[in-house]
Structures are given as structure tokens and as C-alpha cells.
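S.,

Sequence below, as promised.
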Amino acid sequence: MDLEAKKIALRKIPHGVFIVGTHQNGRLNAFTATWLNQASFTPPLVAVGIRKDSHSLAMIQASRVFSINILGKQQKPVAEHFVKPATTSGEKLTGVPHRLGKTGAPILEEAIAHVECEVREIANQAGDHAVVIGEVVEAGVRDKEALALTLADTGWHYGG
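The prediction came back faster than expected:
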């Protein structure tokens, strides 16, 4: 296989940029995610890829809930804020306006929309990212007209 062609081809798959939040034992966490899709209409399911060695995945495995905060096209700085691991940057939600949702997961006040999910399955034994499948149990929209931020909008490259 041509590894460079594989990398370029996989990077052409369009991705949104989201902030995924969770909680465990009174601690909140949130991180930037780009591998996320709706996976079912009935029940409403989403699937998100999360690095297996991340603190965030361990928190989601323990709490069995997460939020997805959808960012608008102009919110790249918000996404940048949540890229670094909590172990190196400390409490990432400090100073970021948020509230706790129905599941206890953090909802960013400035997100254009959000969903809250309960974990239904965690898959992908072979890869470096787990695929967490969550059922949407709550949703909200702050700005119906705003377009969502995409990886192409940021100039970042993740994947391939």
C-alpha cells in the first residue's frame, strides 16, 4: 500500500469538530473530538472515536455518559482550548461557561447545539481508538442558523 496515498485519502473524509464532555466522581472533563457520526435514527445513536489510552475514555467507561457540544464555524479557539490532555493542562472547564446537563456531563453555554448520551456499547478491539456508541437522551439548540465547525475550517490534520 502507498502509505502517503492512504493518509491523504483518509484525511479527505469530512469531519466536524466537537467538544465531548463527561464526568466521574465529581470531576468534569472535556476534549476535542473529530471522529463522530450519527449511527442510528431509532434509537437515536451516535458513535465517537476516542483514544484508548486517554483519561477521557476511562471516565466515559466509568460514568457511562457523555455530552457532545457542537461548535460554530467561528469557534476554533474553543476547540483549541480542549485539545490538550487534562493531565497536562489541569481542569479544562475552569473559566469556560458551562452547566451540567441531564446526565451530569458538561454542556458548553456557547455551543451552537448539544446532545447528551448514555453509553450503549464500546467497540473496536483492534484499533488505537475505541468506538463509543451512545444513545441520545437529551438535546438542545442555541443557534439554529449557525453552521458547524469542521476540521477543514481549522486547517488541522487528524487522521490518515
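The longest helix spans residues 3-11.

Coffee later?
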